[in-house]
Amino acid sequence: MYAVIQTGGKQYRVTEGQVVRVEKLDEEVGTEISIDAAFVATDDAIHVGTPLVKGAKVKATVIDIDRGAKVIAFKKKRRKGYKRRIGHRQTFTALKIDAIVMPKKRAAKKKVEGEEGEE
């Protein structure tokens, strides 16, 4: 079973037990969070949301808040003596996916003849 979640403007394909690095969230380490799922694939069915699957949640625990590796942006104009070097470290939140929860199916109500519009 896997799900697709959306956070920080990006989508992530997640499975239970997986650790995912997402854009920084305003949560503390050890906090359990719940994220709505946009797509869920189970063993027997596929559920696609418009935009989210109704009732489907991904439960995760914040295990780390850190900064990624440094990315260097280097600009240069040849023969002009212009060079510029900038470093950037993006902050991320590491989530451990605990469970993918789907709502239980409800029994459909059957229409009984003669109930509709009796007066």
Could you explain the architecture of this structure?
The model has no long low-confidence stretch (mean pLDDT about 90). The chain has strands spanning about 1-5, 10-15, 20-25, 30-40, 45-50, 55-65, 70-75, 80-90, 90-100. The strands form 2 sheets. Strands 1, 2, 3, 4, 5, 6 and 9 form a 7-stranded antiparallel β-sheet that branches. Strands 7-8 form a two-stranded antiparallel sheet. A hairpin with a 4-residue loop joins strand 4 (about 30-40) and strand 5. The protein is an all-beta fold and about 120 residues long. The protein is about 0% helix and about 55% strand. It has one domain.
The helix/strand order is EEEEEEEEE
Q: How many strand elements?
A: 9
The domain tally reads 1
Number of distinct helices: 0
Percentage beta strand: over 45%
The largest sheet is: 7 strands, antiparallel
- The global form is elongated
Low-confidence stretches: none
Helix content: under 10%
Q: What is the rounded Rg?
A: 23 Å
Mean pLDDT: 91
Task: Tell me the distance between the termini.
Answer: 50 Å
Which keywords apply here?
two-stranded antiparallel ribbon, 119 residues, 7-stranded antiparallel β-sheet, mainly beta
How would you summarize this macromolecular structure in one to three sentences?
This protein has 119 residues and is mostly beta strands.
List the helices and strands and how they pair.
Elements: E1 2-7, E2 10-15, E3 19-23, E4 32-41, E5 46-48, E6 57-67, E7 71-77, E8 82-88, E9 91-101
Antiparallel strand pairs: 1-2, 1-4, 3-9, 4-5, 4-6, 6-9, 7-8
